[in-house]
Amino acid sequence: MDGKKGSLSLLTSELKRFAQFLLSELKPKGKIVTPFNVFATIVLAVAAAILTLRFIKGLGAISHFSQFHPWGLWISFNVITGVAFAGGAYVLTFIVYILHVKKYHPIIRVTVLNGFLAYVFYAGALVLDLGRPLHVINPIIGNSFGVSSVMFLVAWHFMLYMAAEFLEFSPAVAEWLSWRKIRKVLGTLTLGVVIFGITLSTLHQSGLGALFLMAKGKIHPLWYSEFIPILFFISSIFAGLSMVIFERSISNKVFRRRSSSEVIRTNDDILVGLAKICAGTMFAYLFLKLLVLVHGQQFSMLTTPWGYWYLTEVVGFGLIPCVLFTWSVKTKNILLIQISSAMTLIGIVLNRLDTSMIAFNWMNPEKYFPSWMEIEITIAVLVVQILVFRWIVNRMPILSEPPIWAREHKKTVEKIQPIRIKEEQEAWKVSII
Predict the structure, then answer these.
(1) Domains plus CATH for the chain?
(2) 383 vs 30, 235, 376, CA distance in Å?
(3) At a CB cut-off of 8 Å and minimum separation 6, what does 305 contact?
(4) How far, in Å, CA of 216 to CA of 223, rounded?
(5) What pLDDT score does 69 carry?
(6) Segment 229-276, tens digit of pLDDT
(7) For residue 77, what are the CA distances in angstroms to 144, 221, 290, 348?
């Protein structure tokens, strides 16, 4: 009886300690009144009022959606563009964990965190776009499953990939909470989860492009192609890595005090390496775009207003950044790499908006332009994502060194892993013989 009371007392004290720890972590770190915090407060207050109106009176009260343009800014930017920007997570995890290029390991956690938050908030924005938000659970519970729809495939890929990215990121949470045994278990899951996540991500990056294969008569011929899924997949590689470069350029200044010496020391070398990958994948993308243009015999369209807009996207924010990336790698010019990444991100925004919104229903006289409230909600989603990202980085070992006990466990795993791989290779050779 006394033993039970002692165990209950210990559990109570631990729960109390844990609650106090969480409350202390919720307190702001740093100045509360800053220009960004003031801006964020205003944006979120206005967004709260708009969302209240949206859920009371419906989408028509705040948006310019119509039967001809059912997909507006929230889908085109938050989801279709945002998912491309989150592509850095699957690319870097493939490079680090599958190809074993350890140079990029210092930024792997912050990249996975960015990808995870992007999926959570951008996919979460889908709820705002649905006429009946509660129907978002239909693909999960089997009501109107729609298994023949590409959207069904994309929905399940989104859900499973968010779970995979959370598991990839979860060791940092365990280190923050000092859950040593749980951290040990989560560390053993990393490789399997990474492989699962990469598979899902490559599928739904191209799956988003596959959605538009059903809209051949609605998308302008310069943007429509049977190769849209492949183009979406390839562009997600340099889009995601350009976002990593852009994020690193900001985080290296804003979170410098939270960054480990390794992160700071290797920053420039990492950016040069990422720029090299961007240049190579952008060349492949542009070459495929040229093949599509030649195969479709669409050169005559290039002298039309739509053609000028197309060239602005492909040449102005595709070819030029590709050349700049190549030159910046050769000269190791970090500023030029940052400029190139920003231009590339603009190009991806144009490409995704052109495909899904601007050049969609291009022959229809009724044109869609987002309302100011749609733009405000889009900004609010980005602001919330930044606030959550800042809160996590300031508390968890994302850019900083993990606890000593976690580093010791990592060294042990790194010593054992090559031995296990060698044993598996020997066993494979024996089985072949």
Answers:
(1) 36-415 (1.20.1630.10)
(2) 18, 25, 10
(3) none
(4) 10
(5) 78
(6) 999 999 999 999 999 999 999 998 899 888 888 999 999 999 999 999
(7) 27, 21, 25, 10
